[in-house]
TrEMBL record:
Span of the signal peptide: none
Residue ranges of every copy of the ABC transmembrane type-1 domain listed in the record: 76-268
Organism: Hungatella hathewayi WAL-18680
Record GO biological process: transmembrane transport
Entry keyword set: Cell membrane, Membrane, Transmembrane, Transmembrane helix, Transport
Protein name, UniProt field: ABC transmembrane type-1 domain-containing protein
Similarity field: Belongs to the binding-protein-dependent transport system permease family.
InterPro entries: MetI-like (IPR000515), MetI-like_sf (IPR035906)
One GO CC term on file: plasma membrane
Alphabetized PANTHER family for the sequence: ABC TRANSPORTER PERMEASE PROTEIN MG189-RELATED-RELATED (PTHR43744), ABC TRANSPORTER PERMEASE PROTEIN YESQ-RELATED (PTHR43744:SF6)
Membrane-spanning segments: 12-34, 80-99, 111-135, 147-167, 188-211, 247-268
Subcellular location: Cell membrane
Record membrane topology: Multi-pass membrane protein
Length: 283
């Protein structure tokens, strides 16, 4: 058997294995979407049948009606409001802090950078109780402030670290040329660094938006009013252990809830690898 044939067989085997693993991983999602078109009473009795015997849109109609005269469109608006503001705040603050770490010299820089990296290893559950008590004293409970304001001050080290590495890959000669032309640090950041930081910003946008859109625990802790629920928290209203659960409507709204994240990923995926690789500028 020739070397070329061995390579071809290896490539085929690789794609078969990866394809099989991909099907296993995506099957629960496909099952949920297909079950959203089944009658609620038949979802679990025909769980082994992926294709519905009878397609129905009743689950989407019932699910969109929402609860207590609150349409599910309200929950989508709430999620969009939280996710967009938190993502914008995260990107702006992270870019500024990353520029400071990558380009500015100041006392304690290494210590602060190490502290930021250490904060990435700190479990969120450790901060849960003190944060809740703090926000309660600020009268922020049952508002969106705990879900938005903290992300406007670079509390997520992942994005700062990613953007710092990206900025360090940009040649410092560009900064020096800008200084000769009379640019301050603010001018260098806005006119040189920020435009070149686009791949890292878009990568951060993808991750931050998805994380905020899917955030269930934060909403569960701080939001008490049904009309303020985001989608992640509203979905649990379909499940009532004390009576009957409308799983059909739950699956229908869950299928709709993943659309924003999927669309963002599809349209911005070309920037994802470049942003994570933090390769700097290309020639």
């Amino acid at each position: 058997m020739g070397m070329h044939t061995k390579r071809r067989l290896g490539t085929v085997a690789y794609h078969v294995i990866v394809g099989g693993i991909s099907l296993i991983m995506i099957y629960p999602l496909v099952w949920m979407v297909m079950s959203s078109f089944k009658e609620t009473s038949t979802i679990f009795t025909t769980a082994t049948n992926l294709i519905p015997e009878t397609f129905t849109l009743e689950n989407y109609v019932n699910g969109w009606k929402g609860f207590a005269k609150v349409s599910f469109s309200v929950f989508f608006k709430n999620s969009l409001f939280i996710s967009v503001l938190a993502t914008v705040g995260t990107l702006c603050s992270s870019a500024i802090v990353a520029f400071g770490f990558a380009r500015c010299k100041f006392p304690g820089k290494k210590f602060l950078f190490a502290a930021m990296l250490a904060s990435m290893m700190l479990p969120a559950q450790v901060l849960m109780i003190p944060q809740y008590l703090w926000y309660q004293k600020l009268h922020w409970v049952n508002t969106y402030l705990p879900l938005i304001v903290p992300y406007c001050f670079a509390v997520q080290g992942f994005f700062v670290y990613m953007m710092t590495n990206f900025i360090e890959g940009i040649p410092t000669e560009l900064d020096e040329s800008a200084k000769i032309d009379g640019c301050s640090y603010y001018g260098i950041f806005l006119r040189i660094i920020l435009p070149l930081l686009k791949p890292a910003l878009i990568t951060g946008c993808i991750f931050s938006f998805i994380w905020r859109w899917d955030d269930f625990l934060g909403s569960l802790l701080y939001i008490n009013s049904t009309e303020k629920y985001p989608v992640s928290l509203a979905l649990k209203l379909f499940s009532d252990p004390g009576s009957s659960s409308d799983y059909g409507a739950m699956f229908a709204m869950a299928a709709l809830s993943i659309l924003p994240a999927v669309l963002i990923f599809l349209f911005l995926q070309k920037y994802l690898v470049e942003g994570i690789a933090t390769s700097g500028i290309k020639g």
